[in-house]
Structure formats: C-alpha cells, structure tokens
Design brief:
This protein has 10 helices and 17 strands. With about 375 residues, it is of the alpha+beta class. The protein has 2 domains: about 1-140, Creatinase/prolidase N-terminal domain (Creatine Amidinohydrolase, Chain A, domain 1, 3-Layer(aba) Sandwich), CATH 3.40.350; about 145-380, Creatinase/methionine aminopeptidase superfamily (Creatine Amidinohydrolase). A 5-stranded antiparallel sheet has the order 13-12-14-15-16. Strands 1-2-3-4 form a 4-stranded mixed sheet, with helices on both faces. A 4-stranded mixed sheet has the order 7-8-11-17, with helices on one face. Helix 1 crosses helix 2 (about 30-35), helix 7 (about 145-170) packs antiparallel against helix 8 and helix 9 packs antiparallel against helix 10.
C-alpha cells in the first residue's frame, strides 16, 4: 500500500511541475490516504486538522496533531512529519507557515472540501494570495484505478457480499430492523478480518464494519436513506439495505444495495422492483470505454420512461477512496469512460409513502465492457425465514 501511495505522489508532483504548481495543501482524508497511506479516526470536527503539503520539487510534509503523530509516523511512507499542539506556541498555523514560506504567490487547496477552520486561517493570514483548486489535478489521477486498487476493491466486494448474505439470512416475519443491522456488522467484520494480519501497516486497519445501517421497510421503503430502527418486519414488507456508507476496506468505498421482501411480494412491489432492476441492467449493459457518462444514465432513464416512472436520481457515481468521485453517471456529464474507471451503478424508483424498487452494484470498466465488483442475485429476493 505504501509503495503504491509513494508512486502516486511522485506522479502528482510530475503533473504539478507540468502545470506550474509549486505547492498544494491536501486536507481531505481520502486524498491524504491516497497519497500518504494513512488516515485518522479523529476528524476535523474536533478542530484538529491534519494536512499533507506536496511540493512539486521537494519531499512532501505531513502536519498532524502531536497526539496522532505516533500512529501517523507508523502508517505513512512520508519521512517529514511535523507536529503541533493544542496549547502553547506550537500551533498548526505556525507549522503550515514554515512549509508555505513567507510570501507564497498562490496557494493550491481542495476548494470544495477544505475545512472552514483551515480556509479561514488562509484567508486571514494570506489575504492577498489567491487560493486555487488542486482537486481537478488529483481527481484526474483518481479516475483510473490501478490493478492494485482494483484488487483491494474486489476484497471489499467480498466483504460486502458477506454482509448482504447475512442481511438476507436475518430477515423473517417478526424480526426487527436493528437485529439485521447487527448481523450485517458481524458478518462484514469477520470477513474483513480474513484479509488482514497483525503485522506492519496492516495492524492499523480495522476490520470493523461501522456507520449506521441504511435500511427501510414497509411503506418507509420510499425513504431513500432512512436509518435502522426497532421496527418489526411484517409479511409482504419490502426491505431495503444500502451499504454505501459501510461497504469499504482499506479506505476504498463501494456502492451496494438490495431489496428483499418478507415471505412474499405483492404485485405492485414486484412491478416496481423489476423496473429498477431492468433500469440498472440497461445502464450496466451500456458501460464500455468510449461511451459518455451521461449516455449510461440515458439508458436507465429510458427504461423508467417506458415503465411509466420518473426519477431524479443519478444512475451512478465514481467510487474509490472517497464516497463520491468524478465522473457521475447523470445527464450533463460528458466524461468519456475509460478502462479502469469504477462506478456504483443504481436502479432506483420511489413511490412516496407506498413502496420503492432499488438495486445497486459496483463495477469496473474493462476493455470490452464492465465487470462486477459486488455479487448478489439481481432478481426478486424473498426472505428465507
């Protein structure tokens, strides 16, 4: 992992040289993980920023709180790790100033994700220095995944498959939503542990599946991101599981969704779910190098129209070390698909207050089309209990 991160950083430095960019500050956790190989479990919401400063010519610098520095030093390949403290004179602003120099002509940052505390500091400290956006430069690199990255995403796919199987097996009339969520966490964590050791860099990667389970059942199925509750499942209930905030491994995040039905399925629920499946399959069938991102969405939208439904959802999003990367599979995105791009591709219909149809998979674009990263039957799925 660390050697891969080191190569990426060198590639970024080469791009920066070509574009005349001297220094760039990275504050987004996914960007830091991608380039430096580490991530923290305490975030910017505690007012403790960690930053990676990449110089086009010189070695990169990590700026991190003192309390995090031991773990950071063990996880990253970067040798220059500078610490700051909550009290006293060793502030993160001072550490950053030493890296940027006295009179920077311009400062490159991740404009759409830079924390307010850092942005405000830069505005106040360097009022006449333009802030420019480095995100498109790094984003162009992150669009195409290496074989190494795809191998990790496939491991994440196996973990997600174990989670979905556990979700399916947990469902029965009279069961409660949170019990299914517990089954998902247990199965996913145990499968993730199979891919890890307690040696070297691996020992800092937690196998634990976390975040709140996105799950809706019955008439609430139309609420796209409702959280798991103590609700009791009833016969004919549609039950939707979304793992988009949980199916991840070594910072690589997937999209994965399935709809189940308790005991049996009503005709209306069957109709809606089959339309969602068909729309997703039409989109996936359209994916191949040379196709525009918006054309994939158009293939799904045509199915919705034919079935008499409308949707305001995008058909898919690029996935990687962040939950949302570029491009997106939606109208207006004219990015040309290339082999090595990875997407979460969805079929989704909401009939507010009544029911919904949903399905989602992660795929990688190949030379001839696409390959599934996530696997589970793409059909009407009934509970087993």
């Amino acid at each position: 992992m660390l050697e891969e991160a080191k190569i990426r950083t060198k590639n970024l430095q080469s791009l920066m040289k070509d574009k005349g960019i001297h220094k760039a500050i990275f504050t987004d956790e996914s960007s830091i993980a991608y380039l430096a190989g580490f991530w923290g479990y305490l975030g910017i919401e505690f007012g403790r920023p960690t930053m990676l400063v990449v110089d086009a010519e010189e070695a990169p610098v990590v700026i991190t709180p003192l309390m995090e520095s031991e773990m950071v030093g063990e996880m990253t390949w970067i040798e220059d790790v500078r610490v700051w403290e909550d009290i006293g004179q060793r502030t993160w602003g001072q550490a950053l100033a030493k890296v940027l120099g006295k009179n920077p002509a311009e400062i490159w940052v991740e404009k759409n994700s830079i924390p307010a505390i850092v942005r405000n500091h830069l505005d106040d400290t360097y009022p006449n220095v333009p802030l420019k956006d480095i995100s498109p430069v790094l984003g162009s690199m992150r669009m195409i995944k290496t074989p190494f990255e795809i191998s990790i995403m496939k491991e994440a796919g196996q973990i997600a498959g174990a989670m979905m199987s556990a979700a399916h097996n947990s469902l029965h009339e009279g069961g409660r939503e949170f019990e299914s969520a517990l089954a998902v966490i247990d199965a996913g964590s145990r499968r993730a542990a199979d891919f890890l050791t307690d040696k070297g860099w691996d020992r800092f990667v937690s196998p634990m599946i976390h975040n709140l389970q996105i799950m809706q059942s019955g008439k609430d199925a139309s609420m796209v991101h409702r959280r798991t509750s103590v609700k009791t499942l009833k016969k004919f209930d549609p039950v939707y599981f979304c793992f988009c905030n949980m199916a991840q491994f070594k910072q690589y995040k997937l999209g994965f969704d399935r709809m189940f039905h308790i005991g049996d399925v009503t005709e209306k629920d069957r109709e809606v779910q089959l339309a969602a499946i068909e729309a997703q399959q039409a989109a996936i069938a359209a994916i191949r190098p040379g196709v525009l991102a918006e054309d994939v969405a158009a293939a799904a939208n045509e199915v919705y129209r034919e079935r008499g439904y409308e949707t305001g959802y995008r058909t898919g999003r690029s996935i990687g070390v962040a939950y949302l990367e570029a491009p997106e599979l939606k109208e207006g995105d004219k990015t040309v698909l290339q082999s090595g791009m990875t997407f979460a591709v969805d079929g989704g219909i909401s009939v507010d207050g009544i029911t919904a149809g949903r399905i989602g998979d992660s795929i990688v674009v190949t030379d001839s089309g696409s390959e599934y990263i996530t696997q589970y039957p793409r059909e009407i799925l009934l509970s087993k209990g």
